[in-house]
Amino acid sequence: MEASVGERFSGLDGVVAVRTRLSDVDGQNGALTIAGYALEDLAGRVTFEEAAHLLWTGRLPDAAEAAALRRDMAALRVIPDVTMTLVREAAARQASPIDVLRMACASLSLDVQRPNDISPDADMTTAKMLVARLPTVLAACLRSASGREPVAPRADLSLAANFLFMLNGEEPDPTSARALDTYWVTVIDHGMNASTFTARVIASTRSDMVSAVTGAIGAMKGPLHGGAPGPVLDMLVDIGSADAAERWVRRELAAGRRIMGFGHRIYRVRDPRAVVLGRVAEEMAGAVLHDRKLFDLARAVEATALRVLEEVKPGRRLQTNVEFYTALVLQSVGLHPTAFVAAFACGRSAGWCAHVIEQHAADHLIRPQSQYVGPRLVRAPR
User: Fold this and answer.
1) Catalytic residue among 50, 252, 283, 323
2) How far is the C-alpha of 279 from the C-alpha of 287, rounded, in Å?
3) Looking at the domain assignment, is residue 343 inside a domain?
4) 111-153, pLDDT tens digit by residue?
5) Angle between helices 293-312 and 272-287 (to 10 degrees)
6) Is residue 219 packed enough to be buried (19+ CB in 10 Å), middle (13-18) or exposed (0-12)?
7) What is the domain extent for residue 212?
8) Is 323 among the residues known to form the active site?
9) Are residue 201 and residue 93 in the same domain, yes or no?
């Protein structure tokens, strides 16, 4: 019996909702294209600010444009007093970093001169402000939550290096700053995922960019989208040694539990973001941590898990996903797992802004249909 429309398109699976020039996810071949460029040709080769310019304008900046963008965004990093007060209060109440980011993002509209202006110039100005300030919010949140005073941003550092400076109170080593910058480029955009779709739906009503990005952060909070890279570290600690990996993986599968860091809704081969971040994690293990034990264990667990998954779940093609090496990279730059999703949002924010710009230009309301499956002609009680 043929499936109904509602069954075939549950969750809008298989439905093309928008036309975009921003990114393309090829799950069959494990390829991610960002505005015409293969991910591997951008991550680690251009800065996060340059990648943001690519998404916002359709091209990489020349040297003068890149310098101007860095200056513009550096001048916007300081968050307003009302936002800082909110961050301190939320952190004192032990709100999660992603919740603090969402609340603080909404408050930033108070610092926009014309908050309902969705013209191209206004969108570009707001995009620079949001992408510049969300890392400041996250650093202030993490320091406040640990009883430390927030550190004021510096204008002479890159966005990634400045975030680490605000987090730790000292200038980061170049390898750590480059690792975070590469991570943010790697996650800057990824097709029509849940948070991006949320941002576009909000923007399609002619609502403003701050509202759209705030909604996107709310969507990313959910573990089915923002993911759970933190448990990857728990898994590695629990396994402990390469010799114990196969027994651990088989036990988890026999119990019906998921192996964290493997399998993806779209990719049927290795997630290209995992390839990039695997290289970053290896560089961090050798240059910064000077201890390859965790990285070497991760490589061994990855190889074992892939082999056992193929044996136990043949044909499922459960390959390494972005979460696996994200955990190692973000831990190596000094972040606690509770902050991983918020750090992800800081990188994805540039992509959200690009989609809002694109949706505002299209100026078309996103209004899908629903299929009613409830009762009909029920008599109202007398």
Assistant:
1) 323
2) 12
3) yes
4) 999 999 999 999 999 999 999 999 999 999 999 999 999 999 9
5) 150
6) buried
7) 31-226+336-362
8) yes
9) yes
Which pLDDT belongs to residue 8? 52
* 38 and 110 part of one domain: yes
In this structure, is residue 297 part of a structural domain?
yes
Catalytic residue among 53, 190, 264, 355: 264
What are the tens digits of pLDDT across the range 7-41?
555 677 778 888 999 999 998 899 999 999 999 99
Q: DSSP secondary-structure letter at 381?
A: P
pLDDT at 209: 98
Rounded CA gap, 329 and 262, in Å?
Answer: 17
- Residue 6 lies inside a defined structural domain of this protein: no
For 241, which DSSP code?
S
User: Which CATH number does the domain housing residue 124 bear?
Assistant: 1.10.580.10
Q: Within this chain, do residues 83 and 111 fall inside the same structural domain, yes or no?
A: yes
Residue 49 among the catalytic residues: no
**Co-location of 252 and 317 in the same domain:** yes
Summarised one tens digit per residue, pLDDT across range 260-315 is 999 887 887 888 999 999 999 999 987 765 568 899 999 999 999 999 999 999 98
